[in-house]
Design goal:
heterodimer, A: mainly alpha, ABC transporter involved in vitamin B12 uptake, BtuC, about 80% helix, about 0% strand, B: alpha/beta, Rossmann fold, 6-stranded mixed β-sheet, 10 helices, 12 strands, about 25% strand
Chain lengths: ~280, ~270
């Protein structure tokens, strides 16, 4: 049993991969609580796809892929805010238009690169075992910044998410807080690029938080439980992918989906099969 | 911080009052409020009465800054709207929040104290004490750790009233607080209004119950997009005013005014909010 756990860790790439997966699981599942509570699942998925042109352009010019992704996702987050702000079109319409456009642009750019096939699959589905030491440092710094901001803005984020009307009467800068939250979600997606890829990051944002929502009745506990589920899914998923030889990102997401199904069925408060 | 203290200082000197001057709000080319002017003196308790869609909710949303007037100006404490820091509390019609949100009753009420603790500081002993007293005043101490979706309509209304009290407002706005709640919650609301009267809190309450407005409030604003009448109940509750507000919905029975809420006469009139 012990060797079953330690054996994969003899490889340095597994150590780095595990660390990266745990950090990403943590960040995604914490910020994911707001994604779930504010019904932003579609937005999360859209932002994830929208970073593709940023990555492609960075690749084309030999720049840092993460910085390219970062710039693209923040631009799209601001653009969605801009288009839906004046109320002429609904937010989900703005998201639908922009994310398809960004995805198309990304694919167009990538298709001009001759050897795109390999890199594209890594971007779409992640390559946690290819995480380098410098990637790990970038992921850690971003994760630290995101979690600190979530902690600092915990109370105002809670108020704007629960009761925007109260936020207005209390004169909270609701618009700026909403934009900050969008940027934090964008940053989270960028940190997840290496582990689960843009195809599956939405699942990491939504699924652990959705399970935690079923298991708790306070935001602070929801965040803690969600973080636990996120980390557990990442660790279990990575081990499963090692032993069963399946893609690591999908293994992580499938584990968290199983946890969600169990929560849905057996949650003591809200489960459909609860004993009470 | 210094700025905030300054504002607090000013507000404790100047009597709270609301000045609405020539305010209009247009929705889809129709006026929800049509050149309304009125002024509420410090400590007055006013009922805002009118048919559905007459602009009552619009008026309250203007006063808390949720919407902005298309014409005219609003001043609170003789300051333009937006400068009034945190002296206005608002209890909206309650279906506007997600009851599944993971918060407890106590946490919801503590949100009303946000301006006093804020981003960095934690809620103080004083904040906690004010929240506890607010829950006690509305008889919901036992529900402190309940989730919102476990509460009845009346209990929910008490939670939002308690939160408004915890804000320690100079002005309290309540939108249809008597709609669909049990009698004991109505009574608790009136007891609260009596206490607020002693504390000189200015109160505006919207209702479509004419008799309650006439018997329980010091002044009535009668609204149907335009300001039809404003004054003491006896001055406002005249047949010509009520007819202008309610039109064909109004019946006079032995000198008492009754409003038929079942069949609004003109369906195009009830399209706002």
């Amino acid at each position: 049993m012990i060797t079953w756990i330690t054996q994969p860790l003899m490889y340095e790439f597994m150590q780095r991969g595990l660390l990266a997966a745990v950090i990403v699981g943590l960040v995604c599942s914490i910020i994911g609580c707001y994604v779930v509570l504010r019904s932003m699942a579609f937005l999360g998925d859209a932002l994830a796809h929208a970073i593709l042109p940023g990555i492609a352009i960075a690749y084309l010019f030999g720049g840092n892929l993460m910085i390219g992704a970062l710039v693209a996702s923040i631009l799209v987050a601001l653009a969605i805010g801009f288009f839906s702000k004046h109320g002429t079109i609904r937010e989900d319409t703005a998201i639908g238009v922009l994310f398809s456009a960004a995805l198309a642009l990304g694919i167009a750019i990538i298709s001009t690169i001759r050897t795109y096939a390999v890199d594209l699959s890594h971007i779409l589905f992640g390559d946690v075992l290819g995480v380098s030491s410098s990637d790990l440092i970038q992921i850690s710094i971003l994760a630290f910044v995101i979690i600190m901001l979530v902690l600092v803005f915990y109370r105002p984020f809670k108020i704007i998410s629960f009761d925007p009307v109260l936020a207005t009467t209390l004169k909270l800068p609701a618009e700026q807080l909403r934009t900050l939250l969008l940027i934090l979600i964008s940053l989270t997606i960028v940190t997840s690029l290496q582990t689960v890829g843009i195809g599956l990051v939405a699942a990491m944002l939504v699924t652990p938080a959705a399970s935690a929502f079923l298991l708790t009745n306070r935001l602070s506990r929801m965040m803690l439980v969600s973080a636990g589920i996120g980390v557990l899914s990442s660790v279990l998923g990575l081990y499963i992918s090692y032993y069963v030889s399946i893609a690591s990102g999908s293994a992580i997401v499938l584990v968290s989906t199983l946890i969600f199904i169990f929560s849905y069925l057996f949650s003591p408060r809200k489960g459909i099969l609860r004993v009470s | 911080m210094g700025n905030q203290e300054l504002k607090e200082g000013i507000f404790s000197e100047i009597p709270a009052r609301i000045d609405i001057s020539d305010v209009s709000v247009i929705y889809n080319n129709r006026p929800a409020l049509d050149h309304v002017s009125l002024s509420v003196p410090h400590g007055l308790q006013v009922a805002v009465v009118g048919p559905n869609g007459a602009g009552k909710s619009t008026l309250f949303k203007l006063l808390v800054g949720l919407i902005h007037p298309d014409t005219g100006t609003i001043q609170i404490h003789s300051q333009p709207l937006g400068d009034d820091a945190y002296c206005v509390a608002y209890v909206p019609q309650r279906e506007e929040v997600d009851l599944r949100f993971p918060v407890t009753v106590q946490e919801v009420i503590m949100m009303g104290r946000y301006r006093h603790y804020g981003l960095i500081r934690k809620p103080s002993q004083n904040d906690r004490e004010i929240v506890r007293i607010a829950m006690k005043r509305l008889g919901i101490q036992k529900l402190a750790n309940s989730s919102l979706n476990e509460l009845s309509g009346g209990q929910l209304q008490r939670v939002f009233l308690a939160r408004a009290i915890a804000q320690e407002p100079h002005i309290l706005l309540m939108d249809e607080p008597f709609n669909g709640v049990d009698l004991s919650t109505q009574e608790a609301t009136f007891e609260l209004l009596d206490e607020l009267k002693k504390q000189q809190v200015t109160v505006m309450v919207s209702t479509h119950d004419l008799n309650m407005a006439a018997t329980r409030f010091e002044a009535i604003v009668l609204l149907r997009h335009r300001l039809i009448a404003y004054g003491k109940p006896a001055e406002v509750m005249k047949r010509e005013h009520l007819a202008a507000a309610f039109g064909e919905q109004l019946f006079m029975l032995d000198g008492a005014a009754l409003v038929d809420h079942c069949c609004p006469p003109d369906s195009t009139e009830v399209n706002h909010l």
